[in-house]
Amino acid sequence: MPSLLELAANAFTAAAIFLAGRNNVHTWWTGIVGCTLFGILFARNRLYADVLLQAFFVGTGVLGWWRWLHGNHGAPLPITHAGWRTLAWMVPAGIAASAAYGALLHFYTDAYAPFIDSAVLVFSVIAQLLMMQRRIENWPVWLLVNTIAAPLYYSRGLHLTAFLYLCFWVNAIVSWVWWTRLARRQRIDP
Fold first, then answer.
1. What is the mean pLDDT of residues 51-65?
2. Which residue from 85, 97, 68, 70 is spatially nearest to 179, judged by alpha carbons?
3. 18, 43, 57, 141: least surrounded by Cβ within 10 Å?
């Protein structure tokens, strides 16, 4: 049976992810609440990389909120594509950072699945940075994160959270298609 904390964290985060996929600025405040609750939940389950990640999400939630509203010289930030050069360095950097942080957790903490947990952290950071810039490519990175995270959370007995991440996986596909259409419309009718 999920705890009240897990239920609340999932509810706020589900709302935030749904709103992000619909390109709705309210994604940010609901995400801040959900990430704060998940940070507490993950600390109780010794998923330390995820605790750090939730702190990062809270901080970037404030910045993302502002950028979506005012990041285009005071106007709302449009949806765009990330350049291939940006993507070309992000993948190897993500793999290297996952290995390095995973090693730190492995050797210096009692973390459960330190390398997998680290991959969730690192690629979530990459996806979040892309989302803050309203880059369409955030969605395939979220697909990767959700693919890794769902079994990790299930293995820790966080069944509701694992199910939520499976739903996020579907939402990422739908959102990827939706953002691509929105970007196309923006180019046609600025």
1. 93
2. 68
3. 43
